[in-house]
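user: Please supply your own:

assistant:
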Amino acid sequence: MNCDEWRLFLQDYLSGILSEPAKAAIDRHLSDCAACFAEARAYRQVEIGLAGEPLLEPPPGIADRILARVQRPASAWKRELVRLAAAAGLLVGLGVAAWSTIPREKVQETLRSNVRAHGQHLESWLNRAGVAP
């Protein structure tokens, strides 16, 4: 048994509910591993310390208050954020759909008219970008 395997059985070991072969394997590991032995001793001390403490009763209605808080609807800003994200997604989708339906000739014609309208500067930029008409 190694340290990681031992930790899987820690609570059952401390509770004394392991079978004898499993308990013996853990005891062998603890006799060989000082770090795990110290960890087991620390857990045992906490367990002993807590055993002397009285059990506390939870406040009345705590379960209902916790459930009400967990099940509460999202705040207004979260709902608004979701709406905005959905609207942005819809706009992007519509833009892509519209762009893909525009004939290539129309795009090229628009580029040419923009080049003419904006003069040599834009035309030289388009040439450098490799998209000149």
